Amino acid sequence: MSYEQEFLKDFEEWLQSQISINQMAMDSAKKVLEEDKDERAADAYIRYESKLDAYRFLQGKWSFWTTSLLKGLSLESLSNRHFYDTLL
User: Average per-residue pLDDT in the chain?
Assistant: First the structure.
């Protein structure tokens, strides 16, 4: 496995683990908030929800990026700013 392929695999696994961790933390904070009406849990819930939204956004971008690689686009073409301008 090439260095690039290993990075792609590792990054995807890391991203998925962050989504899982933040989902569990958000669910736990919500449970504490509902049971104890703790304001700290409300703050934690908002933080975890924000992180989860950001990781899901990255996951969508990552999915597009890896799909583009599978279609035959090179890493160089994906890193080219002109490539992104044509998507808009």
Answer: 83
